[in-house]
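Table S2 (text version). Query chain:
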Amino acid sequence: MNQGWIYRDKIRPIDAGLTVLEYYTKRYHHSGAEEWLKRILSGEILLDNQPVNPQICLETGHFLTYHRPPWQEPDVPLSFEVLYEDQDLLIINKPSGLPVLPGGGFLEHTLLWQLQQQYSDDKPVPIHRLGRGTSGLMLIARSPVARSNLTQQMRDRQIRKVYRTLIGKSELPDNFIIDHPIGKIPYPTLGYIYAATPDGKFAYSECQVLKRSDKNTLLEVTILTGRPHQIRIHLATIGYPLMGDPLYKIGGIPNIDDTDKLAVPGDCGYYLHAYHLSFLHPTINQSMNFTCPEPETIKKRIN
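Corresponding C-alpha cell output:
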C-alpha cells in the first residue's frame, strides 16, 4: 500500500455554478457519479478544507481537495540503470512497464517517485517523457540551471531522440517521413486521448528501415517534435501500428472495438525503445551522445 495522495483543484470561472458532484463527475471520467458521491459523503473531498454537501454550488476561487486513501498500486519494474550522472543531470535506461509520472493508479510505482527517493537533495525532473511501455534513454535534470537550459533545448528542438521499434511485415521505402498532425479527440473514461487529427499540432518523424523479414520490420525513428505517443500514432496513421500495440490501430486512432475493456495509453505490449540521445551539456557546453541497445524482448522478436 502507498501513503495515499491529496489532489487539489482551484475552481476556474468556467466551472463556477457547478455542484461539487457535477464538477468531479464532469472533470474526472475515470469514476462515475455514484463513486464520486460516496467519496464526498465519506469526507474524502473537502471544500476550502471543510466537509461539503455534494449539491453545494462552486464559486470561482474555491479550493477542492480529494484525499485519496492509500491503495495497492500495480506491480511494475522499479529498478533502472544509471548510465551517466554528474551534478547537473542523469541519463538513465528506463525499463518497459515503469510509468514516468503519477497517474492512472500509479503514484509511488513511478520513475519520478523512485528518483526523488534516491536523489532527495536534488529534486530531479525528467526533461522528456517515455510511455509506460517504452524502454530506453531518458534525460533527467538535477539542478535548476540544467532544468532551465535543457527545457529550452527541448523547445528549440536541439535534443535529438532516436528510437527503434517493430512493425509487421511491410514494403515501406527504406527512408520515409511522416508529418501528420496529432491532437486531442474525445475518449470514454479518460475524457480525451491523443490521436491523428487533421487539425492537430505539427508532428514530424523521420523513419529508416533497418531490417526486414517475412514477419516484421525493424525501424529507426527520429522525432523532431515530441507529441504524446507520436511514433505509435504516426506509424499507425500510415497503416503500420507497432507490433503488440493494444491502443492505436490503422489510421492512428484508438481501438474501441472492445467496449468492455478499452485500452489506455499506459497499456503495454508494444515494442518501442529510446535508442539514442544527444544534446548539449547545460553547464560545460559539451556535446553529449548516448546509445542504449534494445532490450532482449525486442532482440528476440527481430528475425
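Notes on Table S2: The chain has six helices and 18 strands. The first helix runs from residue 20 to 27.
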